[in-house]
Amino acid sequence: MMKRHFLLLAAAFLLFPATGFSAPGNRKKDSHTVVTVPEVRAQVISVETDGVQWLFNVDKAGVLRCNHFGKKIAAPEQFLDFTGARTRNGIEKYGDAAMAYPTVGGRYSNEPALHVKYADGYHNTELYYTGHKVSAQDGVTTTTIFLKDYVTALEVALVYEAWQKENVIVSHSEITNGGKKPVELIEYASSFLPVLADKYLLTHFWGHWAYEMNVEHEVLGYDKKVIETRIGVSATKLNNPAFLLSLDTEEYSERHGEVIAGALAWSGNFKLCFDRTICRLNISAGINPFASSYKLAAGDSFITPDMIWTWSSNGAGQASRNLHAWARKGGVYGGDKINPTLLNSWEGAYFNFNAKTLTDMIDDAAGMGLEMFVLDDGWFGNGEYARDNDRAGLGDWELNTAKLPEGIDYIASYAHDKGLKFGIWIEPEMVTRKSNLTNAHPEWVVRSPGREIYTSRYQWLLDLSNPAVQDFVFGVFDRTMQLSDKIDYIKWDCNRFVNSFGSDWQKDQDRFFVEYVQGYYKVLRRIREKYPEVIIQCCSSGGSRVDYGQLAYHNEVWTSDNTDAVCRTRIQYGTSFIYPASIMGSHVSIVPNHQSGAVTPLKFRFDLACTGRLGMELQPKDLSEEERVLADRCIQSYKQYRDLVFTGNLYRLVAPEEDRYALMYVSQDKRRAVVYDFNLRYESRDIIRTLRLDGLDAGLRYKVRELNTDRPCWWGNEGCFTGDFLMNGGFNPRLYRTYASAVFYLEAE
Ligand code: DGJ
């Protein structure tokens, strides 16, 4: 009997092991209890500017959906029950709701904004609305929506800053671990936007060194499109963290149709994901989760970078103008100021200079009416590590006493005495293998144990995630500023990206990419606290770090190492979609061009450089007398109208993908404008193209005057014409020779 009982018990155990199930009739109470989510008041939350509205609705269950982004709608409360779906049947059930900030978990199964792994190994997060608050200051209304997961106590605040006049909404998320154990943020987007249209045309920007910001238009199909970078620093070398999205069309238009534009303010690895589902297009934007899962201790918060959004009903041109207006008002450091014209020593002298070379260049710059001289690479390092070429010296930021025994203050004072400001180049995040710094602090180099530390331009990257390196980099800037009290401008360069990533300092290697960028911003904040007035240019082998993250601290960028004026039409055109002309360092260089070998007329080079922040980057002695006269003339005229370049509204008239490139800037009151026209290829002298100007006041009469020439190319030169005439087909400058160019100044009577 005993044996039979034992066998029965053993059989029962095999059938219903102790790990959960009990025998029928003998069932243990199931411990799975569902946490109750408190009901809330159903409501619509409207985040709005003068012309753009972002609408959210909260249902009684506390689910926050996003159901509109675009034109302002009267009585938005009508959106209360709107699901934002092209079809309602089964949409929620099959995981395709228009969530405001979707998470991995619950019914949602598409690209998430947030993916969290908890200490118990589970991945589910379901966020519910707990409240929101609104505040307003200086033309910016900030709405913060609070969400919570009632099971794990994870909290998310979604922050939306609505810039009223600029029609820009800047958004980010703040993720707080309200639980008692650490959590792992696997994916943590700044912002998420579900968009409802029938067709989507994506415009984005790709490139390479000296080939930045190529414009790509791409119709999105039912799939995922990801734009990202994983190279850590110099992160915009291959892709820019920005885009435009034309709705309900497959045709790109400057002037017509609905366009959404977005730009992420982050100078490191980023990810923009366009996930087209059956119902809509979900856009998520944020830090790239690549090798960057972020452990959040109990009670800690993670603040994601800003995503800048705008919307236009007048094509891509207006979307760009909105972003530019925002950039001038708040997105760019000193964005409302006019930066000086300059002569940079790089292409004119490279590493080969002494004090006489520089003072001669300063004399020439002053003679041509330029306003600043910038001493580029080559002024530091000594002995075997002298910076006489790019193989040595980075990291050793002492004056090269063999090359410049007179000191930096001598050069800076010479410039000031001639009425010029003075600027100087540094590359503080880098170290060459051959340097005292490498010998002293090998542990500061980004590297991975046992692996080759690859060089690029003979240099390694310093680990800016390490606070000691942050102090060093700040110190480089600070000590450089102490070389003279006449330093007005710093060109901060960054000539390589991340390979074999790793940090001797980090305990958690997953933090490296994120904390590098955070470290970079910490240093820049310290610099701005101490040096609020100095003009800082962000250079990264040209335009490999062009984003609104660094621009919060920098006044301008070096748009490209490619100074070929024809190549620059394309590069600056691409840059103009997202970034204002005021930030584009745009220099006249010598011919044959040092990068391309191309020969273009000096006038073409000047006219093009004058579409941004004008500079020169050549040895002035290489110019003929005749060229010097033209240079003086172009610089003088630029200084008279450049406020239009810095503060006016940009209208792109003809894209350089065609045989012509034309653009114009119009003053805010529409009374003044400057028009640039470039012929890129000869076709026939009989073909005269008509430019339709834009942005003028149709009813005003403008006097049109061609600048920088004695042989005007338009029959109407010096005449007065209505804005209506100029915008609707009357303006046809005769520009047919290859690389012929013209600049017209318009002023209302
Ligand atoms: C790369 C920059 O883009 C150039 O303008 C110049 O500053 C060089 N570095 C100097 O090494």
Description:
With 749 residues, the protein is of the alpha+beta class. It contains twelve helices and 35 strands. Strands 5, 6, 7, 8, 10, 11, 13, 14, 18 and 19 form a ten-stranded antiparallel sheet that branches. Strand 1 and strand 2 form a beta hairpin. It is globular and about 100 Å long. The structure holds (2R,3S,4R,5S)-2-(hydroxymethyl)piperidine-3,4,5-triol (DGJ). (2R,3S,4R,5S)-2-(hydroxymethyl)piperidine-3,4,5-triol binds next to loops.
Q: What's this model, at a glance?
A:
19% of the residues lie in helices and 28% in strands.
Main attributes of the structure:
749 residues, disordered N terminus, 3 domains, binds (2R,3S,4R,5S)-2-(hydroxymethyl)piperidine-3,4,5-triol, 35 strands, Beta-galactosidase, Chain A, domain 5, globular, eight-stranded parallel beta barrel, TIM Barrel
Secondary structure topology:
Layout: H1 2-15, E1 43-48, E2 53-58, E3 64-70, E4 114-117, E5 128-137, E6 140-148, E7 154-163, E8 168-177, E9 183-195, E10 200-206, E11 214-219, E12 224-228, E13 239-247, E14 259-264, E15 270-276, E16 281-287, E17 294-296, E18 301-303, E19 307-312, H2 315-331, E20 342-344, H3 346-349, H4 355-367, E21 372-375, H5 408-417, E22 421-426, E23 430-432, H6 436-440, E24 459-461, H7 467-482, E25 489-492, H8 512-530, E26 535-538, E27 556-558, H9 565-576, E28 584-588, H10 602-609, E29 613-616, H11 625-647, E30 649-654, E31 660-666, E32 672-679, E33 701-707, E34 720-722, H12 723-727, E35 741-748
Parallel strand pairs: 20-21, 20-29, 21-22, 22-25, 25-26, 26-27, 27-28, 28-29
Antiparallel strand pairs: 1-2, 2-3, 4-9, 5-6, 6-7, 7-8, 8-18, 8-19, 9-16, 9-17, 10-11, 10-13, 12-15, 13-14, 14-19, 15-16, 23-24, 30-31, 31-32, 32-35, 33-34, 33-35
Helix pairs in contact: 7-8, 9-10, 10-11
The protein binds (2R,3S,4R,5S)-2-(hydroxymethyl)piperidine-3,4,5-triol.
